[in-house]
Write a structure and sequence with these properties.
The chain has five helices and no strands. By secondary structure, it is mainly alpha-helical. It is found in: Endomembrane system.
Amino acid sequence: MRRIRLFFKIRSFIPFVISFFCSREVAFRKKIAYLLLFIGYFLIPFDVIPDWLAGIGILDDLAVLMLILQRMIKTAPDTLKHKYGI
């Protein structure tokens, strides 16, 4: 349920993600790890549910995106969380 609410706020998290990657408070290896997770998942052609299944195939991509974003928020410094009201 938490990820569903997070999905509807995805546009408001774009500035948070940019600040996360630009912040000096976040360790460089965390930035690289999350960047590799984002890029790696979308470059790997294997999906749990194939994308050619109309509408349903995109759900696994969104679920993984929400999972990565949720973990990113959890590991973000408190200053970033407070700045964006997370």
